[in-house]
Amino acid sequence: MMKNFIYANPTKIIFGKGSIANITSEIPVSSNVLVLYGGGSIRSNGVYDQVMSALSDHTVLEFSGIEANPHYETCLKAVEFIKKNNIDFLLAVGGGSVLDATKFIAAASQFTGNNPWDILVKHGHNIETALPFGAVITLPATGSEMNNGGVITRAATEEKLAFSSTHTFPIFSVLDPETTYSLPIKQISNGIVDAFVHVIEQYLTVNSNKLLLQDYMAESILQVLVQEAPALIQNGYDYDSRANFMWAATWALNGWIACGVEEDWATHMIGHELTALYGLDHAQTLAIILPGLLHIMKIQKSQKIARLGQVIFNIHEDDAERQLDLTIQAIEKFFNAVGIKTCLSDYGLNSEAIAPIVARFADRGWKLGECKNIESEQIKEILELRL
Ligand code: NZQ
Ligand code: ZN
């Protein structure tokens, strides 16, 4: 049954070649702007110059060095900088990590509690206000450019926690497909897999086949990713392929396909621990976990797995069990085909890597998945399948 829902997405999207110039009129000229970015990709690909030229009449300061899987410790430095320099508008320029960090910084700089880590412990429910911010996204993957979520890593304790709040939507996001031309192939592969799994988390659940619009829309996004993957992986500079990829990644996680449906997100929650403890890229963790999770949850999700096989991978087996197995295999093959390996051993991890993850979930007592039936015991089983 379609659940009741309320949907609002306030982020203005500014899409296309040369669109960075539009930010001039999106940020009040009286603002004290802080431009936040990562390790320097925007300096070598010309994005930094475009941003600075658009902001030439604004008062602008910079904060750089936001890491991939952004660190809480770095975010706190930015908060201090903001307070010291009376910054009142933030502009994130980069991938999901820079955007997520900016969302957290926007909230933490206005947080009245004693300890900003509480924002993450409470998953953002205690955010009451945040500085306004815009974004220029340069890596299609996370959907962070049109959602209100973020994920922050505390380096000191190797914890990676997610938050979201109605106060942390970007006011605007610029999506210029040409900014993706400088991406290393590995990040394109990561982006395809991340966006694919975002759709899966919202679509491949116990949802009946009755929620027509959400299902067709989710399948369209998957179709675009699967269809464009070969061109993207050849690293061709085809504008339309890049544009299709960028827009599909945004729609994979802008909240729209989640309206009224059950959601899973267990693959992401387990994957975050692989990043926190062993430093794997976010998409690598998803490519490892998802095939194991689908195997364990095969019966619960059978209707949707079978349908995904038919619609996306053209698998039409009379034997129901075989339909499910071939579909799960097709997903794993797709990840491999785009260049992402899918076993723990591919990343130098063995059975010893499993116990610390299982212990974390046992301590937290989290019940994951759309039926809240994935606990530490199932997580152990999933990880053991992925050695
Ligand atoms: O730091 P710089 O120099 O900018 O380099 C980055 C980084 O090294 C580089 N890069 C980005 N755009 C580029 C580029 N290099 C060349 N050309 C460009 N145009 O790519 C590297 C990875 O960037 P990062 O931002 O870390 O990647 P991604 O966008 O995949 O973000 C990953 C983070 O997002 C979180 C993940 O957990 C992870 O921390 N997620 C955020 C979500 C959200 N906000 O909704 C949902 C996701 O599920 C995910 O959890
Ligand atoms: Zn993700």
TrEMBL record:
This is Iron-containing alcohol dehydrogenase. Residues 10-177 form the Alcohol dehydrogenase iron-type/glycerol dehydrogenase GldA domain. Residues 191-384 form the Fe-containing alcohol dehydrogenase-like C-terminal domain. It comes from Wohlfahrtiimonas larvae. The keyword Oxidoreductase applies. It comes from the Bacteria. Keywords: Oxidoreductase. Gene3D superfamilies: 3.40.50.1970, Dehydroquinate synthase-like - alpha domain. Pfam families: ADH_Fe_C, Fe-ADH.
